[in-house]
Amino acid sequence: MQLTLESDYAIRIISVIAEGWNDPSESEAAASVRMDAKSISDISGVPLRFSLKILRKLVAGGLVRSYKGTRGGYELAKAPNQISVLDVVEITEGKIHINRCISKDFVCTRPAEGPCKFKKCFDDISAEIRNSMRNITFDRFIE
Amino acid sequence: MQLTLESDYAIRIISVIAEGWNDPSESEAAASVRMDAKSISDISGVPLRFSLKILRKLVAGGLVRSYKGTRGGYELAKAPNQISVLDVVEITEGKIHINRCISKDFVCTRPAEGPCKFKKCFDDISAEIRNSMRNITFDRFIE
DNA sequence: TTTAAATATACCATATCGGTAGATTTTTTG
DNA sequence: CAAAAAATCTACCGATATGGTATATTTAAA
Predict the structure, then answer these.
(1) Tally of domains within chain B
(2) A40-63 pLDDT, tens digit each
(3) What distance in Å separates the CA atoms of residue A14 and residue A18, rounded to the nearest whole number?
(4) Which residues does chain A have within 8 Å of residue B100's beta carbon, measured at their own beta carbons?
(5) pLDDT per residue as tens digits for the range B99-116
(6) Nearest DNA or RNA nucleotide to B49 (CA to C1')
(7) What CATH number does residue A113 fall under?
(8) Residues contacting residue A3 through CB under 8 Å, at least 6 positions apart
(9) pLDDT category of residue A29 using cuts at 50, 70 and 90
(10) How many CB atoms within 10 Å of residue B132?
(11) Whose C1' is closest to the CA of A56: which nucleotide?
(12) N or C: which end of chain A has fewer CB within 10 A?
């Protein structure tokens, strides 16, 4: 019942990129400062190579935009207040469900027939966890 | 972010033993029917050898009482409504805290000085999860 | 005294996790 | 156009935790 270290890293990474966010003013559009992976790694403390791997997931998940080539790098694809801890965790780990019953390819060994009597409770708890995480957005970590 | 299969098993096991529970009446004291590991394993679908291992943890955790020798076996040490899913999970997995910062021997690689800015959120979520699980007691699974 | 149970301890195989490496593609810039 | 700097793709690797098993021992009832 722990987040993986990868999720932990992903949260740090989003948080680091979010530091460069400027809210839109009347004169200018909203903008995320572009950062390259090396800087992200240095500031977050996540090993460079592993950062790159995680960043790819975050790009695929639609939280981050990437740009190749010289002057390339990463930007947030959304405002920090539109990105939740849940978004990040589920991109790295898949959808949260505390129990295995739900997982694909899981064969329950309970010999009893009929639906598992624990399933509903587990589902409820999973939903509560997801709600808690959905309420935490990255604007609150900007310093 | 999943319970281990061991926790899942432990929940089943407690539930199986709880089936034999009789609430105290005026004439009789409360009583849990004594069951041997083989029966528990058969009914729960948890491999015998692994059941024994889990049962030892549950005994050590104070949820179950064991008796050696012929006619030995296992009983609940408390009424089902006094045993929560949280109790069982924390006996098998240790205290729930979703993030590693708190774990013994974890060295955070965040280069920033000062307390981790994510810690409080994680602590809050962990507390919510624990509350959810504490509210689910085994009386509700008795059929 | 025999038998049926739990206990202690130790071991093992596999999957997942955390992390790394090399070759390739894309883009900017000189 | 060429070179450099960035991301991407694919693949691999080692350690650890997890799920599971085996053996020998202890305890208690019949």
Answers:
(1) 1
(2) 999 999 999 999 999 999 999 999
(3) 6
(4) 2-3, 5, 8
(5) 987 666 677 887 777 778
(6) D21
(7) 1.10.10.10
(8) A89, A93, B1, B98, B99, B100, B122
(9) low
(10) 20
(11) D8
(12) C
Q: Which domain holds residue A37?
A: 5-141
Instruction: Strand C: list positions under 7 Å from protein Cβ.
Output: 3-10, 17-21, 25-29
Cα–Cα distance list, A45 to A95, A107, B97 (Å): 26, 39, 22
For residue B74, the surrounding DSSP H or E stretch is strand B73-76
For chain B, the residues whose C-beta falls within 8 A of a C-beta of chain A are 1-3, 5, 8, 11-12, 15, 42-46, 85, 89, 93, 96-100, 103, 108-111, 117-118, 121-122, 124-125, 128-129, 132-133, 136, 140-141, 143
Nearest one of A94, A69, A76, A99 to A19, comparing CA atoms: A76
**Whole-model pTM above 0.85?**
yes
CB pairs under 8 A between A and B: 97
- Per-residue tokens: B135: 């509210």
> How does strand A64-67 pair with strand A73-76?
antiparallel
Q: For residue A33, what pLDDT band results from cuts at 50, 70 and 90?
A: confident
Please, what sign has the CA dihedral across residues B111, B112, B115, B119? negative
Query: Within 10 A of A40 (CB to CB), how many other CB atoms are there?
Result: 22
Q: Which two tokens stand for residue A82?
A: 């539109």
Answer for the pair B77, B83: CB distance below 8 angstroms, yes or no.
no
Q: DSSP readout, B113-142?
A: -SS-TTHHHHHHHHHHHHHHHHT-BGGGG-
